[in-house]
Amino acid sequence: MKTSDKHETQPKPRLIVRLGIFLASHHILFSVICCSAGIIALLFLPSLAKNTYLSENALIPGSANPLFSTEDVIEANRFMKEIEAVSGDSRGGMETAKFIAQQIEHLGAELCYHKFLPHSKHFHPLKFFTSMINDMAIQLNGTGTNFGMNTIGIIRAPRGDGKEAIVLVTPYNSQRVQSSEILSLALGFSVFSLLSRAAWLSKDIVWLSADSQFGEYAAVSAWLNQYHNPVFSSHSVTLDTKMHGANRIYVGHTEKAEFRAFKRAGTMAAALVFKVGETRKYGDRDSVRMYAEASNGQMPNLDLLNVVHYLAVHRQGFRVNIAAFSSFLSSAWLRVIAEIFQTLGSMLRKINPDWKLGVAVPDYVEGTANLASSMYNQALGVPTGSHGAFRDYQVDAVSLEFSPTFHVRNENAKSSFLLRGGRLIEGVVHSVNNLLEKFHQSFFLYFLTAPSKFISVGVYMIPFALLVAPLPIVAAALAAGSKNMEKLADESIDDSKANGGADILQSKGGSWKWLQAAKVLLVIQLWAVLVSLLPYYITQIPEAAPVQNAVIWAVLSIVMLIILYVMLGSPYSAGVEWKLLKATMITSISIGLGLMSIINFATAQLGALILIPMCLFSRPLRAHSGMSFFPRAVLLASNVSLAVLGFPPAALLVVKGLSKGSWTVDVGDFWVWMEFLWEWSSATYLYLFLVHLPCWLLCIHVLLHPCHQAESKVKQE
Prior knowledge:
Keywords: Membrane, Transmembrane, Transmembrane helix. InterPro entries: Gaa1. This is GPI transamidase component family protein / Gaa1-like family protein. The structure is a single chain. By secondary structure, the protein is an alpha/beta fold. Among the domains are: 50-119 and 147-229 and 259-323 and 384-436 and 449-454, Aminopeptidase; 511-704, no CATH class. Helix content is 55%, strand content 10%. The strands form three sheets. The protein has an eight-stranded mixed beta sheet, with helices on both faces. It has a three-stranded antiparallel beta sheet with strand order 1-13-12. Helix 4 (70-89) packs antiparallel against helix 5 (94-106), helix 15 (470-480) runs antiparallel to helix 21 and helix 21 packs antiparallel against helix 22 (601-616).
């Protein structure tokens, strides 16, 4: 009676505990449901995209009549003819900078120059923890011959106090000025000339003619570095007159050019980078392509893109587009998915007319292509234009690339393009000029599915949350033993006491196995750190081809792994159970993806899509020996295919095939890709080698685990 009374008075576990035990007992089914739901939710995102809207009422785009007129177009044409003559006679490119400087002075604006050197592209480990722009050197003595020269004009706002500024950037290659770059400079100068006469300005205007002979980003980044981190010098900066004549720069009528003191305006409210691309021979109207992605997935405030889109489409008649994966537009399987979602959406609308989830098949295909490109560019962590340099200083910026359709000799079409392009830039400046504070109302975290449609952070986090949800449940089930979860829940305290504490001792003895699993993880993480640092030494090899560097990198990585296993012990020699090894791997994934989602969510999203299915469904290949042929073949094929897909070079091949439609593989491509990531200090490089690669190696250890030996020992005991 007393024993039964004790059992009756024993409190039941809480609901959350019972739910956890239930999920852990059915963790395989729970993992399948969550992973499938996460992938379906990711494919469903284009149907959940919303139309963009202006959150900041002060912007009021298009409220004022544009002042840019045909007279400004005539001024732009005059500028084009004169700069064509100057650039044709110039041998070193400095004559172009001189001409731009003279035109700025004639407007009565302030003028200064900025001399810079290209940054070093050599790998350095500390580069990931310091800003890339600190590598930009500013040459003060002017003795070098290989340098770039930016020309800056500043208009002081008649209604402002000099505390805020709007930046306009026009890149051009001073060594070889193309006709499209001349058109860009003419467009920039005509707008700058108009703004020099504007009485409504309350923010200073800075026009940066960026010398892009070392790249557009390098020129803008070097100028921003000097703008925000001033370098003081006690002597004037001049160019040596002994240099080649083409490398001289003349101001006024003096032969020896003295560099004027670096001038600044106020805090940057926004920046607009614009250039004219190659003339298209097809299309019914001129188009504008927007580039918004900055370093490590940063995006400008959505209101800035909304202003550009509204003025370009509804005021000036441009066709606005964004980057897209062209291979997706002709994909047959994507069209099948679109038809399924369209049918599902029509069925849901019959149930509730307010559920507007279905989209047309062409819209879904185009939206998916744009979404994939937006996610890829953000996950890559590399800016898509020189506007990315402004985001390093928390300045909202966007790049516009105009694609005209007129013929080069069609002067009327060219004048019409200049008129509409100038009014577009003027309208954007007018809207930003109305702001009383920085952009803050709209979204900073979003994906674009169209120039006028976006997916906010609250929506695109759903697939990631569904993919990550099974990780703690599976780790707990593997650590505790899912088969004994229900038994442990029904055991009473008296039963554990009756065993004389044997269970407690057994649990204590079992807990030491975690140390072996943690040791394995520590060794692999140490190996991953060493592998990520190897390029610093490999790049010291002179004149080595990318293929040679990649092979050396792979061989050294394998050798180091073998040495570490010999010195510290391998996972198999330590006798670690594969369940504990897998639980450790899943715990590492959870921490790594959680940290990466804070730095760059797009990288974490794509990483979860590749890593989580591979790790959740990984089982030792020898554990399938007791199954029948068909289930064994399916599990074996799925494990091997997921492991191959999770290997970083294989993932690169898949991304290359989806983005460019090319499925050819070259060993040197992986080295070039990694070199590209560390050159831009992308956090994706750290993710690949500190999170992705260790988890993939742990998954390989789980697949090759000799589990049959441990099972035979248990049966004998």
